[in-house]
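Worked example (supplementary).
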Amino acid sequence: MPKSIEHLRIHFYGVQGSGSTFPSTKEIDDLIALTDYELLKAVFQDIAERSDRDQSFECSIPDIIGGPTDKNTMLAYRDRLNIPPPRIYGGLTTCFHIETSDGYDIVIDCGSGFRNCAKELELKWGDTNERHLYILGSHSHSDHTEGFDQAAVCFDPRNSIYIYANYQYLYALDSYLGIFSKYVEEDVAGLKTPIDFSLMPAEFTAVEIRNLSKPFTGGKGGFEAAEIHELNTPIVIGETRITPFEVYHQAPCLGYKFEHHGKTFVFCTDHELRHGPDPEDPRQKASEEAEARLSEHAYGADALYRDGQFLRSEYEGRTGIGSSAAVPRVDWGHSCIEDVKHMARKCHVKRAFIGHHDPNREWSDLNWIDESLLRDSEDEESKVELARGGFVLDL
Ligand SMILES: [Zn+2]
Ligand SMILES: [Zn+2]
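After joint prediction of all chains, the assembly is encoded as:
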């Protein structure tokens, strides 16, 4: 029986940046070796605890494992050893699912992680006819939209899907799928995917989040959203208030602050705290303004998810990532791990998860970066770690 949701339950379906990855043969071998080592270490520790000083012992193998050496007994023995699961960071691109205690399902972004998320939503909804999904989009890049045309929820005619996002995100989906306008230009149809609105029977409603204090820079036609929602004004879904705010990236990008009965979660993917040479550069100023906005929203938050794709040495071009070349990554649109750690401490964030992992970063590197973050956090009120796909956070 799953534990009931106190306020918000946040499922991390996709935390990979820029593109989906699958572990290489070497990474799989390394992971198996580490898992085997942890298991063997626990087994021999258990045996040593039962043996005499001269390392001999009187009991039999069934005494140790608690029965005959069949599969069930051996697996039950393994479970009793309580070995921590290996840290796997996942290779699917951005998607989070938030379940609220008052029964709403909210998804952030539809990267490749949305496929598994959608499968589990269909299972959760089962035979019910109350099937409403609220999606919040950050920005139009493909790693935040690529899972949409494979998501089971889009192919079930019983589902009502409300998508809140900026114009560019809504247009990115509509231009090749036609889910809002029920139309795809002839010269685009079928090029990106064989799927379009005519094969997606769920009901889709677009709510455009727009900064009404700025001139509209959206599309030249195409479609119009069913509703315009003013930026910085909370979106209210049941008892959850969600405030969208602008961050700094190469495409217009939104972060979101969730508040539910005093609990706060701040989501910020694809945002660059820029370190350029000229403080007067308008890009530098825009980045710093967005960073200040983000810090204000994140102040005192219970949890923060934030893009930290690079180490500072990689951002500055002094070191490469995995086997990729050492080139400066200024203006690639992503922040540095060190900066996220500093910001989380400065803003008294209780728990910060660094994600949007670089697709060239190897699993072993993610592992040591995470270990050093966790070690650094031991005596701090603000815990900082790498985000892992499949992780579930209860607030
Ligand atoms: Zn991204
Ligand atoms: Zn992006």
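Two points are worth noting when inspecting this output. The chain has nine helices and 15 strands. The chain has a mean pLDDT of 94.
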